[in-house]
Specification:
Helix content is 43%, strand content 17%. By secondary structure, it is an alpha/beta fold.
């Protein structure tokens, strides 16, 4: 999901960031820093010296603040070794934790603060799905069944809304992938079995 939606997540999450380039982490990053293998798999290098890390949470994870802090430390250490200490200080890290359900919500504010380190938390159930569709944030379409900021729509109605949005995507391969992701997320988070005709 992250691989096909990173641009859309950036538009939603950091609208002020002007994206000029998106690249994968160098192969030696996760191999040289064992603890950062998961970090590298959910991260992209933006505009050469900015890093966007997207962490999905399908459970309550009390270790998240410590892990996010470690990511920052590992990242600075890696770039300092590769290009010198000055560049290591210039690295900008954007980190977002995406909570799939109120069952996994252990925060009481949009931001969870650990000492002086802040990362953003996105609660899918607080997002207005129509705004995602209006903004054409295609990569977020599979998550529409988990959204509904007014908590007024039924899950089946949100599934239909998601399907209607996905089929507008002008790429059949992406459509199939997104429908599979949507079905998986809905069944596992909302416990709703989807039967396709």
């Amino acid at each position: 999901l992250f691989a096909i939606s990173v641009r859309d997540w950036l538009k939603y999450d950091i609208p002020e960031l002007k994206v000029k380039s998106i690249a994968d982490f160098p192969d030696d990053f996760s191999s040289s820093i064992k603890e950062s293998q998961q970090f590298a798999s959910f991260s992209k290098v933006i505009n050469k010296y900015s890093v966007y890390h997207w962490e999905p949470l399908g459970h309550v994870d009390y270790d998240l603040p410590l892990r996010m802090t470690r990511h920052m430390s590992d990242l600075s250490w890696y770039y300092a070794r590769q290009t010198g200490p000055d560049v290591g200080k210039e690295i900008c890290l954007y980190q977002t934790a995406v909570l799939f359900s109120p069952r996994f919500d252990y925060t009481k504010s949009p931001y969870y603060i650990w000492d002086d380190f802040i990362y953003k938390i996105v609660k899918l159930w607080e997002i207005d799905p129509q705004k995602i569709i209006d903004a054409k944030l295609v990569g977020l379409y599979p998550l529409i069944p988990l959204m509904d900021n007014k908590q007024s729509a039924s899950t089946p109605d949100l599934v239909h809304l998601s399907v209607d949005a996905i089929v507008t995507v002008n790429n059949e391969r992406w459509q199939k992938k997104m429908l599979k992701i949507m079905s998986f997320m809905t069944e596992n988070v909302k416990n709703l079995k989807i039967i396709w005709d």
